[in-house]
C-alpha cells in the first residue's frame, strides 16, 4: 500500500481534483438507481464487482455528495472555492423561530461562553412545510430496554421527537438477552429468514418487532455459535468489535431485504459506524441509492480500533482499499482499522452532542486522535446539544418520586429530600445535599468526585453518590469509600445502576456535581436543571453550553442556572462547590432564584429535534 500524504495537507492542494475523483469513484462503480436489487443474500461472490479505481494519492474521500440545493435555498457565501464549500452546512446549533413561510436561523450573539470557533455560518432558510421523512436509527442502545449510558436516552428522546413532528421513525437494535422485555409491547416475529453474510458463509437471523413506549423497534436475533447478544450484558467482551460489525451488517441487510429505503439512516457511535461503509461499498450498488447517513458521536474515546480480521468477517475483501489512510486506517496505528474514523469518512453528516465539544474534538485534542479526520471532513461536521425527554424527566408528572412539583410549588421538592434521606438513613438537618449520578468512568472526573465528597462533608453539606463501573478496580475503590463512610449520617455511596433511585436523587438533592474531564454533552446536568437541582460543573463540552454561572456569566440574570469551574483540580472544584454551598446558606433567596431559572429553562428535544431535521433536510436525496 502506498504511503499517503496526510489529508489535511492534501485537502488544500487537491481541492479541484477532489470533486472529479469522487464523482468518478461513485458513478463508475454504482449502477443506475433504476437497476433492481439483485436477488438473494449479499455474498462475497456477488459483491466482487469491479472496484472503482482509487488513486491512493488522491484527495480525501467524500462520499455521495447530495445534489446542490435549489438556487433559492442556497446560503450566501463570500468566496466560494469548491463544490463542497458552496454547500455550507446548516447552522443547526442556533435557535430557530418559526415564521409564516420559512425558518430563519439568526447567528448567535457573541458571548464569552461561545467558543472562538467555528466561524459564524451564514444563515440558512428552511421551508416550514418539510416533507415527512422516513428515518431509521440503527443503535446499540435505547432507553429503557437496553441502556448503558446517555446514548440510550438520546435515541429514546430523539426518535419520539422526530415522530411527533410527522416523520416515520423506526429503530433497529440487537436482541440482547438483557432487554427489558417489560417495556416492549406486542413483540412478535416479522422476518424469519434473514441471512447475513459473515466470513465465507452467512448467519441466520430472526427479526422481531415491538413497540417501546410507542417507538417502532426492530430487534435482530442472530442464531450462531458466537452467541453475539446473549452474553448477560451489553458490552465488555473481547469480540465487541466483531459483534457490532455483525449487527451493523445485519441491520442494513435487513433494510435491503425488507425493501425499506429510508431517507435517513441515523447511526450512533463506533458500534454502528460501519453502516455507512456497507451502504456505500455494497448496498448502493444493489439499489439502495436513496438513503443518506447521519452519524452521531456521543463519545470520541471509544472508536472500535481493530485488525484485519474485521475485513474478512464483514466481507470488505480489499485490505489495500480499506487500510487506506483516507478510509479506515487508524491515524496512529498503521496496522489497525478504526471504525469510528470509517464512519466519519463515509457518512454524509457527522454530529457530536454539543457545539462546544465539536470544537474541542476538532481543535483542542479531545478527538482522541481523530482531529485530522475531523478537519478533513469539517464541512459535514457540527454539534447539536442533546435534549431530555420531559415525559420521563419531569418532576410535575414523575410517578417515580414521592412528591410531584413544578416551578409554582417548589416547596414540594423538599418532601422528596426527606424521602431521599429516609431511603439512605441520612440525618434530617438543615444541610444541602450534593449528589453525583453517573458511570464511574475516568471521564467523569472520579478524583474530583472523591474530593468533593470530603469537601462537602467538611463544609456543612451532605453527599449522595449513585454510580457503577464495569471496571472491577474502580468499583472496588468506591466500595472502599462506601465502607469508610458507612457510618456517616451525612453521606451515602450507592454502587449499582438504579433508574428509580436516580429519579429520587434528582428530585431530592439540592446540587448535582458534574466535574468531568471531558463531557460531549452530559445529561445529568440537564435532568438536574429540570428538577431544580443546581448543577456544579466543569466548564467543558456540553456542560459549558448548558450551565451558566451564577456569578461569572455574561448571560442575563434570569438565565443563570448553576456554578462552573475551569481547572481540573481540587481548587477549581472548590471554587464552584464552595460558592454553591455558601449561597445555599447565606443567600437562600438567590438560591431559590437559581432553582426557578433552572426549572424554567427548556432543554427538551424541541430545539435539537429541529436541528436534526435541518441536517436531514440538508443531506437527503431529493
Ligand atoms: N448508576 C446509575 N443509575 C441510574 N442511572 C444512571 C446511572 N449512571 C448513569 N445514569 C443515567 O445515565 C445517563 C447518563 O448520561 P451521561 O450524559 O452521563 O451519558 P454518558 O457519559 O454515558 O454518555 C455519552 O453520551 C451522552 C449522550 O449523548 C452524552 O451526554 C455524554 O456526554 C457522553 O459521555 C443519565 O440519564 C443518568 O441519570
UniProtKB/TrEMBL annotation:
Annotated gene: glgA
CDD domains with a match to the protein in the record: GT5_Glycogen_synthase_DULL1-like (cd03791)
Enzyme Commission code: 2.4.1.21
Record keyword Transferase present: yes
Keywords linked to the UniProt accession: Glycogen biosynthesis, Glycosyltransferase, Transferase
Domain called Glycosyl transferase family: residue spans: 427-584
Residues in Starch synthase catalytic domain copies: 135-375
Protein name: Glycogen synthase
Amino acid at each position: 500500500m502506498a504511503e499517503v500524504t496526510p489529508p489535511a495537507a492534501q485537502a488544500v492542494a487537491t481541492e479541484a481534483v477532489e470533486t472529479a475523483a469522487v464523482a468518478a469513484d461513485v458513478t463508475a462503480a454504482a449502477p443506475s438507481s433504476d437497476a433492481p436489487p439483485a436477488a438473494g443474500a449479499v455474498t462475497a461472490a456477488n459483491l466482487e464487482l469491479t472496484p472503482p479505481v482509487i488513486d491512493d494519492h488522491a484527495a480525501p474521500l467524500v462520499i455521495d455528495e447530495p445534489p446542490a440545493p435549489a438556487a433559492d435555498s442556497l446560503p450566501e457565501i463570500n468566496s466560494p472555492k469548491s463544490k463542497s464549500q458552496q454547500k455550507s452546512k446548516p447552522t443547526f446549533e442556533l435557535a430557530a423561530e418559526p415564521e409564516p413561510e420559512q425558518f430563519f436561523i439568526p447567528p448567535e450573539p457573541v458571548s464569552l461562553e461561545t467558543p472562538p470557533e467555528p466561524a459564524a455560518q451564514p444563515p440558512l432558510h428552511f421551508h416550514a412545510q418539510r416533507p415527512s421523512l422516513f428515518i431509521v436509527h440503527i443503535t446499540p442502545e435505547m432507553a429503557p430496554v437496553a441502556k448503558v449510558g446517555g446514548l440510550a436516552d438520546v435515541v429514546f428522546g430523539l426518535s419520539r421527537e422526530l415522530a411527533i413532528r410527522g416523520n416515520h421513525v423506526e429503530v433497529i437494535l440487537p436482541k440482547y438477552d438483557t432487554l427489558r422485555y417489560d417495556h416492549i409491547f406486542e413483540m412478535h416475529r416479522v422476518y424469519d429468514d434473514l441471512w447475513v453474510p459473515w466470513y465465507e458463509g452467512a448467519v441466520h437471523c430472526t427479526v422481531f418487532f415491538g413497540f417501546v413506549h410507542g417507538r417502532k423497534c426492530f430487534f435482530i436475533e442472530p442464531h450462531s455459535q458466537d452467541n453475539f447478544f446473549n452474553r448477560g450484558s451489553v458490552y465488555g467482551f473481547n469480540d465487541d468489535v466483531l459483534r457490532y460489525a455483525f449487527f451493523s451488517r445485519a441491520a442494513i441487510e435487513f433494510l435491503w431485504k425488507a425493501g425499506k429505503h429510508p431517507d435517513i439512516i441515523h447511526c450512533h457511535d463506533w458500534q454502528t459506524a460501519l453502516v455507512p461503509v456497507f451502504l456505500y461499498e455494497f448496498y448502493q450498488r444493489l439499489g439502495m441509492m436513496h438513503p443518506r447517513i447521519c452519524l452521531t458521536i456521543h463519545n470520541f474515546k471509544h472508536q472500535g480500533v481493530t485488525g484485519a480480521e474485521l475485513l474478512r468477517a464483514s466481507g470488505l475483501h480489499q485490505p489495500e482499499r480499506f487500510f487506506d489512510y483516507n478510509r479506515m486506517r487508524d491515524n496512529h496505528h498503521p496496522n489497525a482499522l478504526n471504525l469510528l474514523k470509517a464512519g466519519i469518512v463515509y457518512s454524509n453528516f457527522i454530529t457530536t452532542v454539543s457545539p462546544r465539544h465539536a470544537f474541542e474534538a476538532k481543535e483542542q485534542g479531545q478527538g482522541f486522535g481523530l482531529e485530522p479526520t475531523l478537519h478533513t471532513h469539517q464541512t459535514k461536521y457540527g454539534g447539536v446539544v442533546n435534549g431530555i425527554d420531559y415525559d420521563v424527566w419531569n418532576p410535575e408528572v414523575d410517578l417515580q418520586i414521592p412528591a410531584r412539583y413544578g416551578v409554582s410549588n417548589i416547596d414540594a421538592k423538599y418532601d422528596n429530600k426527606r424521602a431521599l434521606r429516609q431511603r439512605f438513613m441520612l440525618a434530617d438537618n438543615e444541610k444541602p445535599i450534593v449528589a453525583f449520578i453517573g458511570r464511574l468512568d475516568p471521564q467523569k472526573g472520579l478524583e474530583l468526585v472523591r474530593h468533593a465528597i470530603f469537601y462537602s462533608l467538611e463544609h456543612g453539606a451532605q453527599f449522595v453518590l449513585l454510580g457503577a463501573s464495569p471496571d472491577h478496580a474502580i468499583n472496588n475503590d468506591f466500595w472502599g469509600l462506601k465502607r469508610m463512610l458507612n457510618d456517616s449520617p451525612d453521606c451515602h455511596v450507592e454502587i449499582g445502576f438504579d433508574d428509580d433511585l436516580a429519579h429520587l436523587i434528582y428530585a431530592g438533592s439540592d446540587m448535582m456535581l458534574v466535574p468531568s474531564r471531558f463531557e460531549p454533552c452530559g445529561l445529568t446536568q440537564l435532568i438536574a436543571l429540570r428538577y431544580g437541582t443546581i448543577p456544579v460543573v466543569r466548564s467543558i463540552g456540553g456542560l459549558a453550553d448548558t450551565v451558566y454561572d451564577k456569578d461569572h456569566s455574561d448571560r442575563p440574570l434570569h438565565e443563570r442556572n448553576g456554578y462552573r469551574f475551569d481547572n481540573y483540580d481540587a481548587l477549581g472544584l472548590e471554587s464552584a462547590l464552595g460558592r454553591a454551598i455558601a449561597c445555599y446558606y447565606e443567600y437562600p433567596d438567590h438560591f431559590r432564584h437559581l432553582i426557578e431559572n433552572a426549572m424554567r429553562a427548556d432543554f427538551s428535544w424541541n430545539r435539537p429535534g429541529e436541528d436534526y431535521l435541518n441536517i436531514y433536510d440538508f443531506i437527503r436525496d431529493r
